[in-house]
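Hi team,

Filling in the usual template for the complex we talked about on Friday. All components are listed, including any nucleic acid strands or ligand strings, so the model treats them as one assembly.

SUBMITTER: L.P.
PURPOSE: interface mapping
COMPONENTS: two
RESIDUES: 363
SEQUENCES:
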Amino acid sequence: MGIEIEVDHQRCTEPEKCGRCLKVCSPQVFALHPAEEDVTNPSRWMVDPVWVSFCIQCNRCVEECPEHAITIT
Amino acid sequence: MCKWCKKHGAGGKWYLNAKNYTDELAREIGAEEYLTVLWKNFERIYVQRHFGISAKGLKYKLQLPIIGKFLKWYTEYKIHREKNLNAKDGDGHFGQVIPLEEAKLILGLAGENEGGIVRVKCVCRKMNRNIDEYNCLAFGVLAEVASRIPRYIPETGVEKLDYDQALTFVEEMNARGRVHTVWFEPVPFIGGLCSCDYPSCTGLRMRRDFDLNVVYKAEYVAMVEYDLCVGCKTCVTRCQFGALNFSDSMGKAYISQERCFGCGLCKDVCPEGAITLVPREELPGLKGEY
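RESULT (copied from the run log):
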Protein backbone atom coordinates (compact mmCIF):
# COMPACT_ATOMS: atom_id res chain seq x y z
CA MET A 1 0.00 0.00 0.00
CA GLY A 2 1.23 3.45 0.77
CA ILE A 3 0.96 4.89 -2.72
CA GLU A 4 -1.86 7.34 -3.37
CA ILE A 5 -2.64 8.46 -6.89
CA GLU A 6 -5.12 11.24 -7.43
CA VAL A 7 -6.70 12.57 -10.58
CA ASP A 8 -8.13 16.06 -10.38
CA HIS A 9 -11.32 15.83 -12.40
CA GLN A 10 -11.66 19.61 -12.49
CA ARG A 11 -8.52 19.72 -14.62
CA CYS A 12 -8.87 16.44 -16.50
CA THR A 13 -11.90 17.25 -18.60
CA GLU A 14 -11.45 15.35 -21.87
CA PRO A 15 -9.67 12.11 -21.01
CA GLU A 16 -11.10 10.24 -23.96
CA LYS A 17 -9.57 12.70 -26.43
CA CYS A 18 -6.26 12.82 -24.55
CA GLY A 19 -5.69 9.44 -22.89
CA ARG A 20 -1.97 10.07 -22.37
CA CYS A 21 -1.90 8.55 -18.90
CA LEU A 22 -3.62 5.40 -20.13
CA LYS A 23 -1.01 4.90 -22.80
CA VAL A 24 2.21 5.89 -21.01
CA CYS A 25 1.60 3.87 -17.88
CA SER A 26 3.69 0.72 -18.10
CA PRO A 27 1.89 -1.31 -15.41
CA GLN A 28 -1.48 -0.05 -16.68
CA VAL A 29 -2.76 1.51 -13.49
CA PHE A 30 -5.46 3.79 -14.87
CA ALA A 31 -8.92 3.07 -16.22
CA LEU A 32 -11.27 5.12 -18.33
CA HIS A 33 -14.87 4.91 -17.25
CA PRO A 34 -18.17 6.68 -17.78
CA ALA A 35 -19.66 8.90 -15.10
CA GLU A 36 -21.80 7.03 -12.59
CA GLU A 37 -24.94 9.12 -13.06
CA ASP A 38 -24.67 8.99 -16.83
CA VAL A 39 -23.28 5.57 -17.79
CA THR A 40 -24.63 5.49 -21.31
CA ASN A 41 -23.35 8.89 -22.33
CA PRO A 42 -20.27 8.25 -24.44
CA SER A 43 -19.07 11.81 -24.11
CA ARG A 44 -18.74 11.72 -20.35
CA TRP A 45 -15.63 9.74 -19.59
CA MET A 46 -13.40 10.01 -16.56
CA VAL A 47 -9.97 8.62 -15.70
CA ASP A 48 -9.17 7.10 -12.34
CA PRO A 49 -6.38 4.97 -10.93
CA VAL A 50 -7.62 1.43 -10.37
CA TRP A 51 -4.69 -0.98 -10.12
CA VAL A 52 -2.82 1.27 -7.71
CA SER A 53 -0.83 -1.58 -6.19
CA PHE A 54 1.04 -1.99 -9.50
CA CYS A 55 2.27 1.61 -9.52
CA ILE A 56 6.08 1.74 -9.60
CA GLN A 57 6.18 5.51 -9.13
CA CYS A 58 7.98 6.21 -12.38
CA ASN A 59 5.99 9.47 -12.55
CA ARG A 60 5.54 9.27 -16.31
CA CYS A 61 1.81 9.98 -16.00
CA VAL A 62 2.53 13.05 -13.89
CA GLU A 63 5.00 14.36 -16.46
CA GLU A 64 2.86 13.50 -19.48
CA CYS A 65 -0.45 14.91 -18.27
CA PRO A 66 -1.00 18.15 -20.21
CA GLU A 67 -3.38 19.44 -17.55
CA HIS A 68 -1.13 18.55 -14.57
CA ALA A 69 -4.07 16.71 -13.07
CA ILE A 70 -2.25 13.71 -11.62
CA THR A 71 -0.48 13.60 -8.29
CA ILE A 72 1.29 10.64 -6.74
CA THR A 73 2.05 10.66 -3.03
CA MET B 1 -12.96 -31.84 -17.72
CA CYS B 2 -13.61 -28.61 -15.87
CA LYS B 3 -16.36 -28.08 -13.35
CA TRP B 4 -18.45 -26.06 -15.79
CA CYS B 5 -18.31 -28.80 -18.39
CA LYS B 6 -19.78 -31.21 -15.88
CA LYS B 7 -22.47 -28.74 -14.98
CA HIS B 8 -23.33 -27.25 -18.34
CA GLY B 9 -21.57 -29.38 -20.92
CA ALA B 10 -24.19 -32.12 -21.46
CA GLY B 11 -21.38 -34.68 -21.38
CA GLY B 12 -18.89 -32.56 -23.33
CA LYS B 13 -17.28 -29.16 -23.02
CA TRP B 14 -19.55 -26.35 -21.86
CA TYR B 15 -18.76 -24.13 -24.81
CA LEU B 16 -19.50 -26.89 -27.31
CA ASN B 17 -22.98 -27.49 -25.90
CA ALA B 18 -25.35 -25.94 -28.45
CA LYS B 19 -28.00 -25.36 -25.77
CA ASN B 20 -25.85 -22.73 -24.07
CA TYR B 21 -26.11 -20.47 -27.12
CA THR B 22 -29.86 -20.65 -27.63
CA ASP B 23 -32.35 -17.82 -27.35
CA GLU B 24 -34.58 -20.14 -25.29
CA LEU B 25 -31.93 -20.47 -22.60
CA ALA B 26 -31.28 -16.73 -22.70
CA ARG B 27 -34.99 -16.08 -22.12
CA GLU B 28 -35.20 -18.65 -19.37
CA ILE B 29 -32.43 -17.03 -17.30
CA GLY B 30 -33.24 -13.40 -18.15
CA ALA B 31 -30.02 -12.82 -20.07
CA GLU B 32 -31.35 -9.78 -21.90
CA GLU B 33 -32.02 -7.76 -18.75
CA TYR B 34 -28.73 -8.91 -17.25
CA LEU B 35 -26.71 -8.01 -20.32
CA THR B 36 -28.31 -4.60 -20.68
CA VAL B 37 -27.21 -3.66 -17.17
CA LEU B 38 -23.80 -5.35 -17.43
CA TRP B 39 -22.85 -3.76 -20.75
CA LYS B 40 -24.03 -0.32 -19.71
CA ASN B 41 -21.88 -0.50 -16.60
CA PHE B 42 -18.97 -2.53 -17.90
CA GLU B 43 -16.26 0.05 -17.55
CA ARG B 44 -17.47 0.99 -14.10
CA ILE B 45 -17.17 -2.48 -12.58
CA TYR B 46 -13.56 -2.05 -11.52
CA VAL B 47 -13.69 1.60 -10.66
CA GLN B 48 -15.98 1.66 -7.71
CA ARG B 49 -16.05 -1.90 -6.57
CA HIS B 50 -14.64 -5.11 -7.87
CA PHE B 51 -17.31 -7.75 -7.49
CA GLY B 52 -18.57 -5.87 -4.51
CA ILE B 53 -15.12 -4.97 -3.20
CA SER B 54 -13.06 -1.94 -4.09
CA ALA B 55 -10.24 -2.81 -6.48
CA LYS B 56 -7.95 -0.22 -4.95
CA GLY B 57 -5.15 -2.04 -3.19
CA LEU B 58 -6.70 -5.38 -4.12
CA LYS B 59 -3.33 -7.09 -4.25
CA TYR B 60 -2.58 -6.02 -0.71
CA LYS B 61 -6.02 -7.01 0.52
CA LEU B 62 -5.76 -10.49 -0.98
CA GLN B 63 -2.42 -11.02 0.75
CA LEU B 64 -3.82 -10.39 4.22
CA PRO B 65 -3.69 -13.63 6.26
CA ILE B 66 -7.33 -14.37 7.11
CA ILE B 67 -9.23 -11.52 5.50
CA GLY B 68 -7.41 -12.17 2.23
CA LYS B 69 -8.58 -15.77 2.12
CA PHE B 70 -12.14 -14.78 2.84
CA LEU B 71 -11.96 -12.06 0.22
CA LYS B 72 -10.76 -14.49 -2.44
CA TRP B 73 -13.47 -16.98 -1.52
CA TYR B 74 -16.16 -14.30 -1.57
CA THR B 75 -15.00 -12.82 -4.86
CA GLU B 76 -14.93 -16.22 -6.54
CA TYR B 77 -18.33 -17.06 -5.08
CA LYS B 78 -19.70 -13.85 -6.59
CA ILE B 79 -18.07 -14.43 -9.97
CA HIS B 80 -19.36 -17.97 -10.30
CA ARG B 81 -22.77 -17.87 -8.76
CA GLU B 82 -25.76 -18.70 -10.88
CA LYS B 83 -28.62 -17.14 -8.94
CA ASN B 84 -29.44 -13.68 -7.56
CA LEU B 85 -26.92 -12.08 -9.85
CA ASN B 86 -25.93 -8.46 -9.56
CA ALA B 87 -25.24 -7.57 -13.18
CA LYS B 88 -23.64 -4.27 -12.17
CA ASP B 89 -20.89 -6.21 -10.41
CA GLY B 90 -20.46 -8.68 -13.25
CA ASP B 91 -21.68 -11.69 -11.27
CA GLY B 92 -21.94 -14.82 -13.40
CA HIS B 93 -19.60 -13.47 -16.07
CA PHE B 94 -16.48 -15.58 -16.50
CA GLY B 95 -14.78 -17.43 -19.30
CA GLN B 96 -12.18 -19.85 -20.51
CA VAL B 97 -9.25 -19.80 -22.90
CA ILE B 98 -9.74 -21.90 -26.01
CA PRO B 99 -7.57 -22.78 -29.00
CA LEU B 100 -8.36 -21.55 -32.52
CA GLU B 101 -9.91 -24.85 -33.63
CA GLU B 102 -12.54 -24.64 -30.92
CA ALA B 103 -13.15 -20.95 -31.53
CA LYS B 104 -14.14 -21.93 -35.06
CA LEU B 105 -16.50 -24.61 -33.78
CA ILE B 106 -18.11 -22.01 -31.53
CA LEU B 107 -18.86 -19.73 -34.47
CA GLY B 108 -20.83 -22.56 -36.06
CA LEU B 109 -22.90 -23.02 -32.91
CA ALA B 110 -23.40 -19.32 -32.21
CA GLY B 111 -24.37 -18.19 -35.68
CA GLU B 112 -27.60 -20.13 -35.61
CA ASN B 113 -29.40 -17.76 -33.25
CA GLU B 114 -31.63 -14.91 -34.25
CA GLY B 115 -29.18 -12.20 -33.23
CA GLY B 116 -26.43 -13.87 -35.27
CA ILE B 117 -22.84 -12.73 -34.78
CA VAL B 118 -21.71 -9.13 -34.41
CA ARG B 119 -18.31 -7.74 -33.63
CA VAL B 120 -18.08 -5.02 -31.03
CA LYS B 121 -15.40 -2.68 -29.88
CA CYS B 122 -13.70 -4.09 -26.82
CA VAL B 123 -14.75 -2.59 -23.49
CA CYS B 124 -11.56 -3.69 -21.76
CA ARG B 125 -9.29 -1.98 -24.25
CA LYS B 126 -11.37 1.18 -24.13
CA MET B 127 -11.25 1.15 -20.37
CA ASN B 128 -7.60 0.25 -19.93
CA ARG B 129 -5.82 1.95 -22.82
CA ASN B 130 -8.43 4.11 -24.59
CA ILE B 131 -8.16 1.96 -27.69
CA ASP B 132 -11.18 1.70 -29.97
CA GLU B 133 -10.79 -1.63 -31.65
CA TYR B 134 -13.03 -4.43 -32.81
CA ASN B 135 -11.93 -7.33 -30.66
CA CYS B 136 -14.92 -9.21 -29.47
CA LEU B 137 -17.64 -11.23 -31.12
CA ALA B 138 -21.06 -11.17 -29.51
CA PHE B 139 -23.75 -13.72 -30.11
CA GLY B 140 -27.52 -13.95 -30.01
CA VAL B 141 -29.13 -11.84 -27.31
CA LEU B 142 -25.90 -10.01 -26.57
CA ALA B 143 -25.63 -9.05 -30.25
CA GLU B 144 -29.05 -7.43 -29.96
CA VAL B 145 -28.39 -5.81 -26.58
CA ALA B 146 -25.00 -4.38 -27.64
CA SER B 147 -26.55 -2.76 -30.70
CA ARG B 148 -28.91 -0.80 -28.45
CA ILE B 149 -26.31 0.63 -26.10
CA PRO B 150 -25.32 4.17 -27.14
CA ARG B 151 -21.63 3.49 -26.95
CA TYR B 152 -21.93 0.64 -29.41
CA ILE B 153 -24.41 2.16 -31.81
CA PRO B 154 -24.09 0.56 -35.25
CA GLU B 155 -22.15 3.30 -37.00
CA THR B 156 -19.48 3.40 -34.33
CA GLY B 157 -19.26 0.24 -32.35
CA VAL B 158 -21.14 -2.75 -33.74
CA GLU B 159 -20.78 -4.56 -37.03
CA LYS B 160 -22.77 -7.55 -38.21
CA LEU B 161 -20.75 -10.49 -39.53
CA ASP B 162 -21.75 -13.62 -41.37
CA TYR B 163 -20.15 -16.95 -40.51
CA ASP B 164 -17.32 -16.66 -43.05
CA GLN B 165 -16.46 -13.11 -42.00
CA ALA B 166 -16.40 -14.18 -38.36
CA LEU B 167 -14.13 -17.07 -39.25
CA THR B 168 -11.71 -14.77 -41.08
CA PHE B 169 -11.82 -12.40 -38.11
CA VAL B 170 -10.75 -15.02 -35.53
CA GLU B 171 -8.05 -16.28 -37.86
CA GLU B 172 -6.71 -12.75 -38.28
CA MET B 173 -6.78 -12.18 -34.55
CA ASN B 174 -4.93 -15.44 -34.02
CA ALA B 175 -2.28 -14.40 -36.54
CA ARG B 176 -1.86 -11.13 -34.62
CA GLY B 177 -1.29 -13.05 -31.42
CA ARG B 178 -4.58 -12.73 -29.61
CA VAL B 179 -5.78 -15.32 -27.15
CA HIS B 180 -9.27 -16.64 -27.84
CA THR B 181 -11.57 -16.67 -24.85
CA VAL B 182 -15.22 -17.69 -24.58
CA TRP B 183 -17.53 -16.12 -22.00
CA PHE B 184 -20.57 -16.95 -19.94
CA GLU B 185 -22.79 -13.91 -19.59
CA PRO B 186 -24.48 -14.92 -17.39
CA VAL B 187 -23.69 -18.55 -16.70
CA PRO B 188 -24.77 -20.81 -18.48
CA PHE B 189 -25.63 -18.57 -21.46
CA ILE B 190 -22.64 -17.98 -23.76
CA GLY B 191 -22.58 -14.45 -25.10
CA GLY B 192 -19.17 -13.80 -26.56
CA LEU B 193 -15.86 -14.84 -28.00
CA CYS B 194 -13.05 -12.38 -27.35
CA SER B 195 -9.55 -11.84 -28.69
CA CYS B 196 -7.57 -10.96 -25.60
CA ASP B 197 -4.07 -9.97 -24.67
CA TYR B 198 -2.49 -9.30 -21.31
CA PRO B 199 -2.81 -6.88 -19.58
CA SER B 200 -5.33 -4.91 -21.69
CA CYS B 201 -7.85 -7.68 -21.10
CA THR B 202 -9.17 -7.19 -17.60
CA GLY B 203 -10.08 -10.87 -17.32
CA LEU B 204 -6.53 -12.00 -18.00
CA ARG B 205 -5.22 -9.36 -15.62
CA MET B 206 -7.48 -10.61 -12.83
CA ARG B 207 -6.34 -14.15 -13.43
CA ARG B 208 -2.64 -13.55 -13.83
CA ASP B 209 -2.12 -10.82 -11.27
CA PHE B 210 -4.67 -11.73 -8.63
CA ASP B 211 -5.22 -15.43 -9.31
CA LEU B 212 -8.96 -14.91 -9.45
CA ASN B 213 -10.67 -17.39 -11.74
CA VAL B 214 -12.37 -14.89 -14.01
CA VAL B 215 -10.74 -16.77 -16.88
CA TYR B 216 -9.97 -20.47 -16.72
CA LYS B 217 -7.11 -22.20 -18.46
CA ALA B 218 -8.01 -24.15 -21.58
CA GLU B 219 -8.71 -27.87 -21.66
CA TYR B 220 -5.25 -28.31 -23.18
CA VAL B 221 -1.58 -27.66 -22.51
CA ALA B 222 1.11 -27.11 -25.12
CA MET B 223 4.10 -29.43 -25.27
CA VAL B 224 7.25 -29.20 -27.37
CA GLU B 225 8.36 -32.29 -29.27
CA TYR B 226 12.06 -31.85 -28.76
CA ASP B 227 12.98 -34.08 -31.69
CA LEU B 228 11.12 -31.77 -34.06
CA CYS B 229 11.97 -28.35 -32.59
CA VAL B 230 14.77 -26.70 -34.56
CA GLY B 231 15.11 -23.69 -32.26
CA CYS B 232 13.91 -21.09 -34.79
CA LYS B 233 12.30 -18.99 -31.99
CA THR B 234 9.21 -18.21 -34.09
CA CYS B 235 6.96 -19.13 -31.15
CA VAL B 236 8.64 -17.11 -28.43
CA THR B 237 6.78 -13.86 -29.03
CA ARG B 238 3.40 -15.57 -28.95
CA CYS B 239 2.96 -16.45 -25.29
CA GLN B 240 0.83 -14.08 -23.18
CA PHE B 241 1.26 -16.10 -20.03
CA GLY B 242 5.00 -16.19 -19.41
CA ALA B 243 4.98 -19.93 -20.04
CA LEU B 244 7.28 -20.07 -23.06
CA ASN B 245 10.89 -19.06 -23.48
CA PHE B 246 13.82 -20.02 -25.61
CA SER B 247 16.17 -22.27 -23.72
CA ASP B 248 19.61 -21.36 -24.98
CA SER B 249 21.29 -24.37 -23.40
CA MET B 250 18.93 -26.76 -25.16
CA GLY B 251 18.73 -24.65 -28.29
CA LYS B 252 14.99 -25.24 -28.30
CA ALA B 253 11.74 -23.71 -27.10
CA TYR B 254 10.79 -24.46 -23.53
CA ILE B 255 7.19 -24.47 -22.29
CA SER B 256 6.20 -24.54 -18.65
CA GLN B 257 3.06 -26.67 -18.54
CA GLU B 258 2.30 -25.34 -15.11
CA ARG B 259 1.98 -21.81 -16.48
CA CYS B 260 0.57 -22.73 -19.88
CA PHE B 261 -3.04 -21.65 -20.47
CA GLY B 262 -3.42 -23.87 -23.53
CA CYS B 263 -4.38 -21.16 -26.01
CA GLY B 264 -2.34 -22.82 -28.76
CA LEU B 265 -0.91 -19.58 -30.17
CA CYS B 266 2.63 -20.99 -30.11
CA LYS B 267 1.50 -24.15 -31.86
CA ASP B 268 -0.27 -22.18 -34.59
CA VAL B 269 2.95 -20.54 -35.80
CA CYS B 270 5.41 -23.40 -35.42
CA PRO B 271 6.77 -24.10 -38.93
CA GLU B 272 7.95 -27.56 -37.90
CA GLY B 273 4.74 -28.68 -36.22
CA ALA B 274 6.82 -29.30 -33.11
CA ILE B 275 4.27 -28.01 -30.61
CA THR B 276 1.18 -30.05 -29.84
CA LEU B 277 -1.81 -29.41 -27.62
CA VAL B 278 -2.39 -32.25 -25.19
CA PRO B 279 -5.67 -32.53 -23.27
CA ARG B 280 -5.04 -31.46 -19.69
CA GLU B 281 -6.99 -34.40 -18.34
CA GLU B 282 -4.64 -36.89 -19.98
CA LEU B 283 -1.81 -35.69 -17.78
CA PRO B 284 -2.29 -36.90 -14.20
CA GLY B 285 -0.03 -34.15 -12.88
CA LEU B 286 -2.21 -31.43 -14.36
CA LYS B 287 -5.62 -32.97 -13.95
CA GLY B 288 -8.11 -30.47 -12.57
CA GLU B 289 -5.64 -27.58 -12.83
CA TYR B 290 -7.66 -24.90 -14.50
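MY TAKE: The radius of gyration of chain A is 12 Å. Chain A is about 20% helix and 20% strand.

Thanks, L.
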